[in-house]
Design brief:
2 copies of one chain form a homodimer. Chain A is α/β, with parallel strands linked by helices. The first copy, chain A, has 2 domains: about 240 residues, Aldehyde Dehydrogenase, Chain A, domain 1 (3-Layer(aba) Sandwich); about 150 residues, Aldehyde Dehydrogenase, Chain A, domain 2, CATH 3.40.309.10. Chain A has 13 helices and 16 strands. In chain A, the strands form 4 sheets. In chain A, strands 10-9-11-8-7-12-13 form a 7-stranded parallel β-sheet, with helices on both faces. A 4-stranded parallel β-sheet of chain A has the order 5-4-3-6, with helices on both faces. In chain A, strands 1-2-16 form a 3-stranded antiparallel β-sheet, with no helix packed on it. In chain A, helix 10 links the parallel strand 7 and strand 8. In chain A, helix 3 packs antiparallel against helix 7. Chain A is globular. Chains A and B meet through strand 2, helix 10, helix 13, strand 13 and strand 16 of A and strand 2, helix 10, helix 13, strand 13 and strand 16 of B. Strand 16 of chain A pairs parallel with strand 13 of chain B, so a sheet runs across the interface.
Chain lengths: ~425, ~425
Amino acid sequence: MTTSTRTIGERARAAARQLAHAPSEQKTRALVALAERLETAGAEILEANGQDVLAARAAGLGPALLDRLTLDATRLAGIAADLRRVAALPDPVGEVFDATTLPNGLRAHKRRVPLGVFGVIYEARPNVTIDIAGLALKTGNAAILRGGSETLRSNRALVEAVRQVIAAGGLPPDAVQLIDDPDRARVLELLHLHEYVDVIIPRGGAGLHRFCRENSRIPVITGGIGICHLFVDASADLAGALAVIRNAKVQRPTVCNALDTALVHREVAGVFLPRLIDALAADGVTFRIGPSAQPFIPAGHPACTPAGPEDFDTEWLSLVLGVQVVDNLDEAIAHIAAHSTGHSDGILTRDDASARRFVDEVDSAVVYVNASTRFTDGGQLGLGAEVAISTQRLHARGPMGLRELTIYKWVIAGDLHVRP
Amino acid sequence: MTTSTRTIGERARAAARQLAHAPSEQKTRALVALAERLETAGAEILEANGQDVLAARAAGLGPALLDRLTLDATRLAGIAADLRRVAALPDPVGEVFDATTLPNGLRAHKRRVPLGVFGVIYEARPNVTIDIAGLALKTGNAAILRGGSETLRSNRALVEAVRQVIAAGGLPPDAVQLIDDPDRARVLELLHLHEYVDVIIPRGGAGLHRFCRENSRIPVITGGIGICHLFVDASADLAGALAVIRNAKVQRPTVCNALDTALVHREVAGVFLPRLIDALAADGVTFRIGPSAQPFIPAGHPACTPAGPEDFDTEWLSLVLGVQVVDNLDEAIAHIAAHSTGHSDGILTRDDASARRFVDEVDSAVVYVNASTRFTDGGQLGLGAEVAISTQRLHARGPMGLRELTIYKWVIAGDLHVRP
């Protein structure tokens, strides 16, 4: 017997109201207790996960998906360590800002409060379950989780552990709920639950994001799709540029902040491109060569094929790199405007004026000068944790950490003030 | 021949890219030029408006709607004065904040940038057209306007004037575009234009907000619907409480921050309620009396009727006031949690502990202590202008001024940093 989506929503709202004014120490204690629980009593979780893995293997899931799905003691310990890190971060809730006394004597300020209830729709990774639960608890929000059907047993065990720990800490267990019915109709119901849910956070591929955007009556944080660019300007330190591009492409090619397209200034293309291709081909990279780059490529290079019409609009998530030559900075900026998803784009240059123009005119969540796009990450940028990387423009852009899971209320105190 | 919604979107995006780095002085000059244009060359606008008014009168529109629709030289001068005020406000675009140097030496900061493109769907008031155009221009955003069909001629003339002035100022006229086709299907098209439009701002009644929420693929700023409460605590200064409630109810009853329900602590209900009812009845207020308040009402008072089941969930927008008696602060907070739209709610008290608990636990965009709800207004709260009053929880709550029409991008500079 599964709980109706509406009931889940009502319970989440009620829990959120209670959690919104839980003291920081109480939330921190619950997070630490959850970490301990995962470290010392993870047996039922691993058993449930083992069943998921068996079923997935029987269903013929590929090795990459099986790997994502699998938990073991080491991974649980890693998840627990992440929880302790989040527990140790400062609590953004309650922060007072923009305080002012108005000319009429009214005292106004804004106070940071939780967003309320968020719905998270995600795919195979069971670690997301604890990740989101921890961030929700820390920021005083309630979370409604809808994971992939392959992880249903794992998620049930994980959420059960979370709820027990929350309740033992004197907090409302309905702060974290799982929609544990694999029926796809439940996702639609969640997306229509605007009375109870304040924001939808999809974590998955472009198809999931599109589905949420097209069907949600609740604002959706679109993100995590990165067609990322680095532009090698004529003045770039070419050895450094090569190192940065290699890092952005090769270090972890399957993630959204990995590089997709290298744009190279025509003046340095003859020197730089053959070096780039030789170096990265040795790492296993293959290249899609745009028409203007073609003349600079050694004829018949085995790692290079001409770019197809969709190639500069593809997030590769693999060891493939698009390559294009541009005549100048304007052309680089125009290419990025036409093809970027607004995630992470950068310039490699020694010219301050070019760097300034690039930063002014490239309209991405994170704009880089002389650094790898791989730094677009809540941990790397000092947020301590992240719930998503937003590529939409409302509320937050780029990595969303604890503060981005809050909003404010105005608090206004007067002496029986009336409006004239 | 009308322009397709998609083409309008493309043009808006292109204009937004250009406007995003227009210098403040250039934007200010255009705003001042627009004010001058309205003051000195409003004849075509007034003529077009006269035709709208004639047509509306022929179609049998009521006097309130006709009044909203009508422009004259005085109103144009008022609109121009508002534009000059917006022109004089500081430009939020370009502000740098959260600057930091990370342990690895990366320099990161956030830079305030325009939201991008917003779509505004509104009803009869032609002043909204200039209001939104001015705010968009000031904040470097492009706006796509969809006004009511009764104001089509006025809006065409107004937008034409706006575009001429923008172009004369060397800025892209497509920063302000009107969907001037009265076909309702165009609204749906606008709501589906997520590639080009970043946020939808409905300005109108609950029905319009619902329509936008249910049909939009773009985040919607829901707001402007205020079921507002004031709670008279046992310790309240009763004469002051009466003055505040009168102001909140009577000063301008047709707006969203006007009072809808007075909650009165049982301890003072016997003294306070008869005074409240006598005083406000003299202003023409009628009352919907909740069951718990009934015993405190003079029998057969002509201004009082028992509250019906929907009355505490109604935004009155008129001289009607719901009245309920509660046993204590908890009951007041619970009533507000059940019935408020999260716009503006307040407590009247001399007890600091009660004030603190009310402010902590009432989850509205603006929470008041000892002041009228009528202060929820961008002008009153020092924002200088407002585009909407948000009652949703993402991005901004309460009055949205210039800063709330912006977002940020991350700017990260390194010395050829790579991620380890």
